């Protein structure tokens, strides 16, 4: 968390960190000095220790506007499963892909790679006589926010 806050704070991003109240207790996992340093770089909201913090994350992201992004390793599958119909689940996945920043561990010690949220939708797209079709070379399991990185471009002649 410390490395992520430091990395994002360098980009002058406005940060809200959602955590649980146990993080305020000085312990081997949550040093008071480290927490104070992070609180100088970001706003914090501490939920009850037994709370479901995903609801706070989703609310804060939605309430902060359409350009707000969020970082979590959670795939939010439980929340998608609660949605009543396939169209709503599809819209949630589309929203998630456009707002969730992925985290990838770096080979370097104490460094984090952030995978940006997608600026485009992963569906067949067309402009005039040209189609762009996302595809994968091999079948592999993927999470709902991951999309193929290859696109086939077909142009009618």
Explain what you see.
The structure is a single chain. With 157 residues, the chain is of the alpha/beta class. The chain has five helices and eight strands. The strands form three sheets. Strands 3-4-5 form a three-stranded mixed sheet. A hairpin with a 6-residue loop joins strand 4 and strand 5. The longest helix has 14 residues. It comes from Nicator chloris. It is found in: Mitochondrion. Its main location: mitochondrion.
Tell me the strand order in the biggest sheet. 3-4-5
Helix-and-strand structural type = alpha/beta
The tally of structural domains comes to 2
Q: Percent of residues in helical segments?
A: 25-40%
Order of helices and strands: HEHEHEHHEEEEE
Number of strands: 8
CATH class annotation of the largest domain = Alpha Beta
Oligomer state of the chains in this structure? single chain
Our measurement of the CA-to-CA distance between the termini, rounded to an integer number of angstroms, reads 53 Å
Tell me which CATH architecture of the largest domain applies here: 3-Layer(aba) Sandwich
Rounded to the nearest angstrom, the radius of gyration is 19 Å
In round numbers, the mean pLDDT is 84
GO biological process, one term: tRNA 5'-leader removal
Subcellular location: Mitochondrion
Protein name: MRPP3 ribonuclease
Domain PRORP: 3-153
